[in-house]
Design a protein that fits this description.
By secondary structure, this protein is of the alpha/beta class. It has helices at 5-20, 28-36, 68-78, 95-103, 114-126, 163-167; strands spanning 57-60, 63-65, 85-89, 106-111, 132-136, 149-154, 169-181, 184-193, 196-205. A hairpin with a 2-residue loop joins strand 1 (57-60) and strand 2 (63-65). Helix 2 packs across helix 4. The model has no long low-confidence stretch (mean pLDDT 95).
C-alpha cells in the first residue's frame, strides 16, 4: 500500500524525535531543517518506504544518501548562520544540500557524477530550493571561484584533509570531513583561526571514498 503524505510527515517527525533529538542533536535550527526537508523526495522510488529509517540508502553510481543521524551530526558541527556561504563536496541526491540551503545563505555543491548532479538539481527545483549552485567536477579541489567559505562539508572519505579545501576556508570557518582508511574513518572538525588550523574528532564513521586529485587514487595527495 502506497504511503500517504500524512504517513510520510509522521515518519519524518518520528525520525527527528527518535533518531536525532534523543541522540543529542540539539541545535534548534538543525532540527527545524530536518522537519522541513522531506527526505523521501531524495531517495529512489523503490526506497521511499525506507526514507525515514536509520540507515543509508543507495542512490546509484555506487553512492548513498547518508543515514539521517550522520547528516545531522555533520550539519550541527558546521554551526551555520543564515548569512554564511557553504561548499559541499559530494552532492549525491541533494538531501544534505537541501538541509544546508535551509540553514545558510548560499550553497555551492560539487558532484563527480553528472547523472547524480542532474537528479539532485531536479529534486531541488521540485522543492523550490533556489539558493544552491550545482557543479560537476573534482570536489577534492574545492571551488576556488566562490571561496572563501564559512563552512565546507565533505560527504566522502579522504585519506587526509586536502590542502585545497582548508585553503578555501574563511577566517573562523569550519570544515567537516571524514578522514582515514577506505573502510574506517574519523569524522573531523577543522577550524581556521588567525590563519591557523585546529582539528578535533567528532566521532567514527564509514563513508564512500573521496575520489579526485586529492582523494583516493589521485596523483597528488597532500
Amino acid at each position: 500500500m502506497a504511503l500517504t503524505k500524512a504517513d510520510l510527515t509522521q515518519a519524518r517527525t518520528q525520525m527527528v524525535e527518535w533518531q536525532l533529538r534523543r541522540r543529542e542533536i540539539s541545535d534548534r535550527r538543525v532540527l527545524e531543517a530536518f522537519l522541513e526537508v522531506p527526505r523521501h523526495e531524495f531517495v529512489l522510488p523503490e526506497h521511499v518506504a525506507e526514507a525515514y529509517e536509520d540507515h543509508p540508502l543507495p542512490i546509484g553510481e555506487g553512492q548513498t544518501i547518508s543515514q539521517p543521524y550522520m547528516v545531522a551530526v555533520m550539519t550541527e558541527a558546521l554551526r551555520l548562520q543564515e548569512e554564511e556561504k557553504v561548499l559541499e563536496v559530494g552532492t549525491g541526491s541533494g538531501y544534505q544540500t537541501a538541509i544546508l540551503a535551509w540553514l545558510a545563505r548560499h550553497v555551492y555543491t560539487i558532484e563527480k557524477y553528472a547523472s547524480l548532479n542532474a537528479r539532485a538539481q531536479e529534486n531541488l527545483r521540485r522543492l523550490e530550493i533556489r539558493n544552491v549552485t550545482c557543479l560537476v567536477g573534482d570536489g577534492s579541489q574545492g571551488y576556488q571561484e566562490a571561496a572563501p567559505y564559512e563552512g565546507i562539508l565533505v560527504t566522502a572519505a579522504a585519506p587526509r584533509v586536502p590542502q585545497m579545501l582548508s585553503d578555501q576556508l574563511a577566517e573562523g570557518g569550519r570544515l567537516v570531513i571524514p578522514v582515514g582508511e577506505i573502510y574506517s574513518q574519523e569524522l573531523l572538525l577543522v577550524e581556521k583561526h588567525e590563519g591557523r588550523l585546529s582539528q578535533k574528532t567528532i566521532n567514527y564513521c564509514r563513508f564512500v571514498p573521496l575520489t579526485g586529485k586529492y582523494g583516493w587514487g589521485g596523483n597528488q595527495v597532500n
